[in-house]
Design goal:
The complex is a heterodimer of chains A (621) and B (165). Chain A is α/β, with parallel strands linked by helices. Chain A has five domains: 31-132, 3-Layer(aba) Sandwich (Glutaredoxin); 155-365, 3-Layer(aba) Sandwich (Rossmann fold); 375-458, Ubiquitin-like (UB roll); 463-551, de novo design (two linked rop proteins); 565-620, Alpha-Beta Plaits (2-Layer Sandwich). In chain A, strands 7-8-6-5-9 form a five-stranded mixed β-sheet. A five-stranded mixed β-sheet of chain A has the order 11-10-14-12-13. In chain A, helix 7 runs parallel beside helix 11, helix 8 packs across helix 11 (237-251) and helix 18 (463-477) packs antiparallel against helix 20. Chain A starts with a helix and ends with a strand. Chain B is an alpha+beta fold and 165 residues long. Chain B folds into two domains: 12-71; 83-164, Glutaredoxin (3-Layer(aba) Sandwich). Helix content of chain B is 47%, strand content 11%. Chain B has helices at 12-25, 32-43, 48-58, 62-71, 91-95, 98-109, 151-164; strands spanning 83-88, 122-127, 139-141, 144-146. Chain B has a four-stranded mixed β-sheet, covered by helices on one side. In chain B, a hairpin with a 2-residue loop joins strand 3 (139-141) and strand 4. The longest helix of chain B is centred in the N-terminal third of the chain and has 14 residues, at 12-25. The two termini of chain B are 33 Å apart. Classes of the chains: A alpha/beta (621), B alpha+beta (165). Chain A binds chain B through residues 41-42, 45-46, 78-81, 222, 224-227, 230, 262-264, 300-306, 317-324, 338, 379, 381-383, 387-388, 419, 422, 453, 455, 457, 461, 466, 469, 479, 606-608, and chain B through 29-34, 36-37, 64, 67-68, 71-75, 89-92, 94-96, 100, 127-136, 145, 147, 151.
C-alpha cells in the first residue's frame, strides 16, 4: 500500500459513501439511493440482519441497479430499532419489521413515496430527515463519526472517510515526539474512566527502556448498562486499528493486543475481519507505507471477569493467568505485559486519535471545557425514552442530555437521579441536573465520568436498592486478592440488605459510611477503591430514603419487598375475584361482588394481584 | 476439586481436535486462555479430563488450569443444557424488572444460575448486560433474544422449547 493507491481507493469509494451523513445530492455518486440498515447488537437482536438481506433480495429482484443496500454500525437511537435510513433523502425508518420491507421497497424505492407510518416521530410530533431529529442535532459525533455511516466490514468505506490517512501522516511526516505532542496538546484524556492525560501516558511509554514494547486496547467494557466501546468496535473497527498503529509508532512498539469481552460476538467478528483486511492492504504487518515501520495486532478474548477492565489485571489475563491486579508502581508504562513497557488505552480514547492527528490538536482542544477537552460518548439507558448512544461535547449540562437528547422520562414519571460510572460511580440527584458533564464536576459531587454508562432513574426506583444492586455486582466481581475489597464489600452488602429489610438502625448507617471509607482507602486496585461510591453518593443525596427504611420501615419507592404490603381499597374493589384467582399463595379472600382482602401473613408480595386488577383497587403501601 | 457429577462423554475425535489445537498454541505467549476457550467451545464445558489434557500439553500445572477455570465466569465446570437460557441482570434490565423474571425462571425450572436441569434440556445463567437495553428486560435462549419479558410471559417461552424437546 502506498499513498497514491490509498488516495485512489478514497476517490473511488467516495462515490458510494460521500453523501451519506452529509445529505448532499447525488451528483457524481454511484447510486441514486442507499438503504442503510443498522447491524449493531441492539438492532441485530431485533432481526436487522434478516431485514437487510430481504432488502437486498427485493432490490435485486426488481432490478433496481442504482440502489445500494448496506449495513452500518449504530445510529444511536437503539430504542427506535431496528433502524433503516435511506439516503440521500435522509429518511429515518424506526421499528422496521421483516414484513415492512416489501412496502418500503415498492413505495419508497420504486414509486418515490416514503412510508409514512414507519417514519420516526420526533419529540415535537413531527417526522423529519435523520439529521434534523432533535436528539441528533444536539450531538457532536467525533469518536462516532463513522458509526451509522460506513459499512464496518468494508475497509474501502473507512478509507473513503479519510481512513488510514492519519497513519500515513504520522509515519511519513511526523517524528515520534511530534505525534505525542499533538496528542498531548489536544488535551485528550483517558475515556476508560480515570481521565489520565493520554499524551502523557504515551510519553512515559516512549521514554521507558525496553527491548520490546506493547500497545494494548482495553475493550473489556464491563460496566452494566454501558456499550460505547462495543458500538465503536461494531461500527468503526478500523479507527481503533489505525490509532493503535499510530500509538505503536509513537511509543516504539511492534505488537498490539485488543482485549475484548467475549460477550461481544459481533464486535469480535468485525474486529477480526478488519484486522485481516488491514493486513491484506499492508496497513498492518511489515514495512507499512514503505517506511520500515512494522506493527501487528492480535485479539484476546476476556472470559467474563469485570476486574479485567483494570489495567494490571487485564495484562495478567492476556498473559493467560487469573486476572488479578497487582500493586502500582511499577506502572504498565515501565513494566506491563510480559514484564515489558506497555501502553494501554481504551477503545473510545483510540477512536479520537486519527482525527486529532489529521486535523491538529486545536480541532479537538477547542471543544469542551477548560480541563475536559473534546467529546464524550454515553450509553443512555434505564428510565429514558431514547435509549441509545449519544456523543456530546464535554460540559453539556446533564438536563440537556436527559431531556433534549434523551427525550425525558417515559410514562410521565418524575426524574429522580442519573447514575454515571457504573459500579464505580455515583448518583446525580435531580436537584443537580444543571451540572455540566465533565471529569471535574462529576468527581466534585462524588460521582465519576466512568466509561460512559448513564442510567436514568425515576420515582419508582429505590436508591437503597440501587446501591445494593451495585454492591452485589462488586461482591460477585471482586477478585479476592485483597481483604478490604473481598470481605469489606460483602459486609457492606449485608448492611445494605439489613436496611432494605427494615432491620437496620441509624447507627448502622454511620458504620456503613465508616466501612465505605475504609474500603476506599485500603483496597489494592480501582475496583475496590471505587466500590463504595454508589453507597456513599446515595447516602449523601438520598439519606432521607435510607432513614425512611430504617426508622419508618417504609420503602418510599415501593421496591423493597420486605417492607411492602399490598392492600385492597374497598371503595374501588368490585369483587370481580380476578385477583383471588390469580394469587399464587391463595392469600386473597372475599365473596363475589363484595370487596376482597389480603392476608398479609400469606402474601408473597409478588404483585400479581395489582397487575391483574382492572379497577386499580390494589395498592402498595 | 469441584466438578460435575455427570459422567464425561467426550469422544476420541474431540480429543484429537483439542490436542491438535494445543499443539498449535503451545509456543505462543499467554496461550492458556485461548486454549481453554477452544476446549470449552468443543466440549461445552471444562470437565476434569479436559483440564488434564490442557495441563499436560501446554505444560502448565493442573492447579493453574483449574485456578483460571474457576476465576472467569465464562468457564464452566458443569455441562450446559440443550437450551441455554440467559436472563440479563444488567442495570437497564434490572430497573425494568428483570429480577422478577429471573425468579419466575428459577421457580419454573427448579434450578438457579449456573445449573442445568436433570434432563439436560435447560440451563440457566443470570448474565451481565447483553447490550439490547432498548428492549429491557431481556432474556435469551441459545442467543435468541426475547425483549420486554414479563414474569407471565416466561411460561409460554419455555413451553415452546419443551415442545421442540
Amino acid at each position: 500500500m502506498d499513498i497514491a493507491r490509498l488516495k485512489q481507493i478514497r476517490e473511488e469509494t467516495f462515490k458510494s459513501v460521500g453523501n451519506r451523513a452529509t445529505h448532499a445530492d447525488n451528483a457524481g455518486m454511484n447510486f441514486d439511493r442507499q438503504v442503510l440498515v443498522c447491524g449493531s447488537t441492539g438492532c441485530a437482536s431485533n432481526n436487522s440482519q434478516k431485514i437487510r438481506r430481504r432488502f437486498a433480495e427485493l432490490v435485486a429482484e426488481k432490478g433496481l441497479e442504482r440502489v445500494h443496500v448496506g449495513q452500518t454500525g449504530c445510529f444511536g437511537l437503539c430504542a427506535a430499532g431496528p433502524v433503516v435510513v435511506v439516503y440521500p433523502d435522509g429518511t429515518f425508518y424506526s421499528h422496521v419489521t421483516l414484513d415492512d420491507v416489501d412496502e418500503i421497497v415498492e413505495s419508497h424505492l420504486v414509486n418515490n413515496v416514503e412510508v409514512e407510518r414507519l417514519l420516526y416521530v420526533d419529540a415535537d410530533g413531527k417526522t423529519k430527515p435523520f439529521n434534523e431529529i432533535e436528539s441528533y442535532c444536539r450531538q457532536l459525533r467525533h469518536a462516532l463519526r463513522n458509526c451509522g455511516v460506513i459499512d464496518p466490514e468494508n475497509i474501502d468505506e473507512y478509507i473513503a472517510r479519510d481512513g488510514y490517512f492519519a497513519l500515513y501522516k504520522a509515519l511519513s511526516e511526523m517524528s515520534r515526539d511530534e505525534v505525542i505532542d499533538v496528542v498531548t496538546d489536544s488535551g485528550l484524556r483517558g475515556r476508560g474512566g480515570a481521565g489520565f492525560l493520554t499524551g502523557r501516558k504515551w510519553k512515559f511509554t516512549k521514554e521507558a527502556q525496553g527491548d520490546k514494547k506493547y500497545v494494548c486496547c482495553n475493550a473489556d467494557e464491563g460496566d452494566p448498562g454501558a456499550f460505547m466501546d462495543r458500538s465503536v468496535l461494531e461500527g468503526d473497527p478500523h479507527c481503533v486499528i489505525e490509532a493503535m498503529a499510530i500509538a505503536a509508532y509513537a511509543v516504539g512498539a511492534d505488537q498490539g493486543y485488543v482485549y475484548v469481552r467475549a460477550e461481544y460476538p459481533i464486535a469480535v467478528e468485525r474486529l477480526d475481519i478488519a484486522i485481516r483486511q488491514a493486513r491484506d492492504y499492508g496497513l498492518l504487518g511489515d514495512n507499512i507505507f514503505g517506511t520500515g515501520f512494522r506493527f501487528d495486532l492480535e485479539i484476546r478474548l476476556g472470559a467474563g471477569a469485570f476486574v479485567c477492565g483494570e489495567e494490571t489485571a487485564l495484562m495478567t489475563s492476556i498473559e493467560g493467568r487469573r486476572g488479578e491486579p497487582r500493586p502500582r508502581p511499577p506502572f504498565p508504562a515501565e513494566k506491563g505485559l510480559f514484564g515489558k513497557p506497555t501502553l494501554l488505552n481504551n477503545v473510545e480514547t483510540y477512536a479520537n486519535i486519527a482525527q486529532i492527528i489529521l486535523h491538529g490538536a486545536e480541532s479537538y482542544n477547542t471543544i469542551g471545557t477548560e480541563r475536559s477537552k473534546g467529546t464524550k460518548v454515553f450509553a443512555l439507558g434505564g428510565k429514558i425514552k431514547n435509549t441509545g448512544l449519544v456523543e456530546i461535547p464535554m460540559g453539556t449540562p446533564l438536563k440537556e442530555i436527559i431531556y433534549d437528547i434523551g427525550g425525558g422520562i417515559p410514562n410521565g414519571k418524575k426524574f429522580k437521579a442519573a447514575q454515571t460510572g457504573g459500579p464505580s460511580g455515583g448518583c446525580i440527584p435531580a436537584s443537580l441536573q444543571d451540572i455540566p458533564i465533565d471529569y471535574e464536576s462529576l468527581s466534585s459531587i462524588g460521582s465519576m465520568m466512568g466509561s460512559g454508562g448513564l442510567i436514568v432513574l425515576d420515582e419508582d426506583n429505590c436508591m437503597v436498592d440501587i446501591a445494593k444492586f451495585y454492591l452485589q455486582f462488586t461482591v460477585d466481581e471482586s477478585c479476592g486478592k485483597c481483604t478490604p475489597c473481598r470481605i469489606g464489600t460483602r459486609r457492606l452488602y449485608e448492611m445494605l440488605c439489613k436496611v432494605t429489610e427494615g432491620k437496620a438502625t441509624l447507627e448502622d448507617l454511620d458504620k456503613m459510611e465508616q466501612l465505605c471509607y475504609y474500603i476506599k482507602d485500603n483496597s489494592l486496585c480501582g475496583l475496590g477503591q471505587s466500590a463504595p461510591n454508589p453507597v456513599l453518593s446515595t447516602l449523601r443525596y438520598f439519606r432521607e430514603e435510607y432513614i425512611a427504611h430504617v426508622v419508618e420501615h417504609r420503602c418510599p419507592a415501593g421496591v423493597c419487598k420486605a417492607l411492602l404490603r399490598y392492600e385492597i381499597d374497598p371503595a374501588k374493589c368490585k369483587g370481580c375475584t380476578l385477583c383471588a384467582r390469580n394469587c399464587p399463595a391463595q392469600a386473597i379472600s372475599g365473596t363475589v361482588r363484595e370487596p376482597h382482602s389480603i392476608d398479609a401473613n400469606k402474601c408473597l408480595k409478588c404483585g400479581i394481584c395489582a397487575s391483574k386488577c382492572k379497577f386499580g383497587a390494589i395498592k402498595k403501601v | 476439586m469441584k466438578g460435575s457429577s455427570l459422567p464425561f462423554d467426550g469422544t476420541p475425535e474431540q480429543e484429537a481436535r483439542l490436542r491438535a489445537k494445543l499443539d498449535e498454541l503451545k509456543n505462543k505467549q499467554g496461550a492458556l486462555m485461548p486454549a481453554m476457550q477452544y476446549a470449552q467451545e468443543l466440549y461445552g464445558y471444562l470437565p476434569f479430563e479436559v483440564q488434564s489434557i490442557i495441563s499436560e500439553e501446554l505444560n502448565v500445572p493442573l492447579s493453574e488450569v483449574y485456578g483460571v477455570a474457576t476465576f472467569y465466569s465464562q468457564f464452566s465446570l458443569y455441562p450446559k443444557g440443550k437450551y441455554q437460557i440467559g436472563i440479563c441482570l444488567g442495570t437497564a434490565c434490572y430497573v425494568n424488572g428483570s429480577q422478577a423474571v429471573y425468579e419466575k425462571l428459577q421457580q419454573l425450572l427448579g434450578i438457579s444460575s449456573g445449573e442445568c436441569t436433570e434432563d439436560k434440556l435447560f440451563s440457566l445463567d443470570a448474565t451481565r448486560c447483553v447490550g439490547c437495553c432498548g428492549m429491557a428486560p431481556v432474556m435469551t435462549v441459545n442467543g435468541e433474544v426475547y425483549g420486554k419479558v414479563t414474569p407471565d410471559a416466561v411460561e409460554a417461552i419455555l413451553a415452546k422449547y419443551h415442545q421442540r424437546g
